[in-house]
């Protein structure tokens, strides 16, 4: 079953091989991938391989602007073998947004939708988030959503070298507190529609 998540400004939909060109335009930017632990894409063909082998996985979504249908990034939940937690009830969230779209709150909006799905549809008990030393943007997004720092793994090898990885956790019991606080700040709760 292909799940699509609908938020105020975004559609989160499964990736397809037809997305290779749009993915390449975002993922070839050296400001994006290395902060997340992966090297910039060097060709559309490489983006197609990444789609096939990584992004076209369950609970991995292209982040699409509603008004233009343009892909602006990615958000995903990774389970068990693809995460350090080794527990299907405690997935790890991953997200990135293309540089032209930074500063508009899209990472948080997309993350809200998939975290809400994790707790209220997939019945997860916690969601973990990680960021590397040079990715303060991810730290800020996770912190705003109520993730709490747990520990640092000082030596994690990625395709871009060795990094310190900071691990943060959001438990299901803290999620309603974030939703209520956000509803108060925004004047309304965020809405996620599944179709």
Provide a descriptive summary of the structure in words:
The protein has about 200 residues and is of the alpha+beta class. It has one domain: Aminopeptidase, CATH 3.40.630. About 30% of the residues lie in helices and about 30% in strands. The chain has 6 helices and 9 strands. It has helices at about 20-25, 35, 45-55, 105-120, 135-145, 175-185; strands spanning about 5, 10-15, 60-65, 70-80, 90-95, 125-130, 150-160, 160-170, 195. Strands 7-8-6-5-4-3-2-1-9 form a 9-stranded mixed sheet, with helices on both faces. A hairpin with a 3-residue loop joins β1 and β2 (about 10-15). α1 (about 20-25) packs across α3. The model has no long low-confidence stretch (mean pLDDT about 90).
Give a quick precis of the structure.
The radius of gyration is 16 Å and the shape is globular.
Q: What keywords describe this structure?
A:
6 helices, 195 residues, 9-stranded mixed beta sheet, alpha+beta, 9 strands, Aminopeptidase, 31% helix, single chain
The H-level CATH homologous superfamily, spelled out, is: Gcn5-related N-acetyltransferase (GNAT)
- Low-confidence parts: none
The helix/strand series, from N terminus to C terminus, equals EEHHHEEEHEHEEHE
> Quaternary status of these chains?
single chain
Number of domains: 1
- Could you say what the CATH architecture is? 3-Layer(aba) Sandwich
Give the strand tally. 9
Mean pLDDT: 90
CATH class: Alpha Beta
What would the CATH topology be? Aminopeptidase
InterPro entries: Acyl_CoA_acyltransferase, GNAT_dom, N-acetyltransferase
Keywords: Transferase
GO molecular function: acyltransferase activity, transferring groups other than amino-acyl groups
Pfam families: Acetyltransf_3
């Amino acid at each position: 079953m292909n799940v699509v998540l609908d938020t105020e400004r975004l559609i989160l939909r499964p990736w397809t091989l037809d997305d290779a060109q749009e993915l390449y335009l975002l993922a070839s930017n050296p400001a994006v991938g290395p902060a997340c632990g992966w090297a910039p894409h060097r060709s559309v063909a490489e983006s197609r391989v990444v789609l096939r082998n990584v992004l076209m996985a369950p609970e991995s979504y292209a982040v699409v602007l509603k008004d233009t249908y343009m892909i602006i990034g990615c958000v995903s939940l990774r389970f068990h073998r693809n995460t350090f937690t080794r527990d299907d009830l405690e997935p790890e969230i991953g997200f990135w947004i293309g540089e032209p779209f930074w500063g508009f709150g899209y990472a948080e909006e997309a993350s809200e939708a998939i975290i809400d799905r994790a707790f209220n549809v997939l019945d997860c008990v916690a969601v973990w988030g990680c960021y590397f030393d040079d990715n303060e943007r991810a730290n800020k997004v996770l912190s705003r959503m109520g993730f709490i720092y747990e520990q640092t793994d000082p030596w994690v090898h990625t395709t871009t070298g060795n990094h310190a990885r900071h691990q943060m956790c959001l438990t299901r019991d803290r999620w309603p507190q974030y939703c209520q606080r956000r509803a108060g700040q925004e004047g309304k709760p965020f809405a996620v529609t599944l179709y």
